Amino acid sequence: MSAFHDMVASDIDAVFLNLDEFGETHKIDNATITCCIQDAELNAVNNLRFMSESTMRLYAREEDLPKRRNPGQTVHIDGVGHTVVTWKIEMGMVIAEFTHEEVR
Length: 104
Hints:
Elements: H1 3-16, E1 24-28, E2 31-46, E3 49-61, E4 74-77, E5 80-90, E6 93-103
């Protein structure tokens, strides 16, 4: 591994997934892992119903997550089903985007 890759791997553990920095503990399917989640909520009125769609981006070590998922498949995050939009792996980290719709 190159010096750059070594530095990135060190930063993932020391900063990005450090529970004192950006890391958080979440239950992904049946595994409790350390990861980082960014989320946003979009609201819309559809056919006289109020719909809320949340989008979420998850960053986690590849080896900590269950098997790779394809777009359209479901992953349970903290007990709530989310639909996979994208699932990429970069330098040992999974960057996955999800949506979740809820009628209110």
